[in-house]
UniProtKB/TrEMBL annotation:
SUPFAM superfamilies: P-loop containing nucleoside triphosphate hydrolases (SSF52540). Keywords: Hydrolase. Signal peptide: none annotated. PANTHER family: ATP-DEPENDENT RNA HELICASE (PTHR18934), ATP-DEPENDENT RNA HELICASE DHX8 (PTHR18934:SF85). It holds the Pfam family DEAD. Residues 95-258 form the Helicase ATP-binding domain. Residues 14-39 are annotated as: Disordered. One of its GO terms (biological process) is spliceosomal complex disassembly. Residues 14-23 have a biased composition (Basic and acidic residues). GO terms for cellular component: catalytic step 2 spliceosome. This is p-loop containing nucleoside triphosphate hydrolase protein.
């Protein structure tokens, strides 16, 4: 199957929806009409079958919600969630390293908690007094969602002690002490204020992605750090190849955070797939039908593919 087939399925679905709408308007079809299969049985038996069907549907949804999933993080308190992250065991050592060094390279697996926790550890240690703890993200969605999560953990509204700044949306205030932003927004601030006078600590997160804005920030912040010995810099990376960052920042130490939140297994197709979209949908169906209950996350290139995939999956599941 290729993209043309998916498009045809989408058109057929829309045509079917239009036909159903016309039938409903004419009164030909009624959602509450009696089941013809029950016409030959007694009223009591009809009631029993309908009740059993409703109960089965309710039990299905209940089982999906209550199915054992191990220790789900959403079932834990915020305190327990924070302490379950791999980074928690290194909290004191991290703060000691920050005290002893102006610039620090932090290497940790994705999901170790470095993005949400390090800024909070710094704030709890007093680094937010008289200045902001800033953290950059390569994408605006990440900056906004991380700020919302950290605000939830801190116990404040987004825009108060914890806020974010992305293009066309600045959700901060004079009370903001932890600020998440895109690297492009911090770059603009650095060009207007080369000394970064509003910040006590700046963390460049996901530095291994090496966006143009991040690379420019390396130079701007390195220059600011030479002028301001009190300005602390943190460069975080999810890859072990952090020595080049250390070399650029005058041989600063590398702080390792081993461990990950969940075990990750990477599976590859045996042969290249000519149609990645259809292959993705087939894989989703296979997982849904053969694996225990849980969530499936599919990354696609745009809204049109997402809408098409949702409609096709909905139709195939009927």
């Amino acid at each position: 199957m290729n993209g043309a087939v998916l498009a045809r399925e989408r058109r057929e679905l829309k045509m079917q929806q239009a036909r159903e709408k016309q039938k409903s308007a004419r009164g030909v079809e009624n959602a509450n009409r009696a089941d013809p299969l029950l016409d030959s049985v007694s009223e009591a038996e009809k009631s029993r079958v309908l009740v059993a069907s409703a109960q089965a549907s309710a039990e299905f949804h209940k089982e999906a919600q209550n199915a054992p999933k191990g220790m789900r993080r959403v079932d834990m308190s915020i305190k327990d969630q924070r302490e379950s992250l791999p980074v928690f065991a290194f909290r004191n050592r991290f703060l000691k390293a920050m005290e002893d060094n102006q610039i620090l390279i932090v290497v940790g697996e994705t999901g170790s908690g470095k993005t949400t926790q390090l800024t909070q550890y710094l704030a709890e240690a007093g680094y937010s007094r008289g200045g902001i703890i800033g953290c950059t993200q390569p994408r605006r969605v990440a900056a906004m969602s991380v700020a919302e999560r950290v605000a939830q953990e801190v116990g404040c509204r987004v825009g108060d002690e914890v806020g974010y700044s992305v293009r066309f949306d600045d959700n901060t205030s004079r009370n903001t002490r932890i600020k998440y932003m895109t690297d492009g927004m911090l770059q603009r601030e650095a060009l207007l204020d080369p000394n970064m006078s509003n910040y006590n600590v700046i963390m460049l997160d996901e530095a291994h992605e090496r966006t143009i804005a991040t690379d420019v920030l390396f130079a701007l912040l390195k220059k600011a750090a030479t002028k301001r010995p009190d300005l602390k810099l943190i460069i975080t990376s999810a890859t072990l190849d952090a020595s080049k960052f250390s070399d650029y920042f005058l041989g600063c130490p590398i702080f390792q955070i081993p461990g990950k939140t969940f075990e990750v297994e990477v599976l590859h197709t045996k042969e290249p797939e000519p149609d990645y979209l259809d292959s993705s949908l087939m894989t989703v169906m296979q997982i849904h039908l053969s694996e225990p209950s849980g969530d499936i996350l599919v990354f696609l290139t745009g809204q049109e593919e997402i809408d098409t995939s949702c409609e096709v999956l909905y139709e195939r599941m009927k």
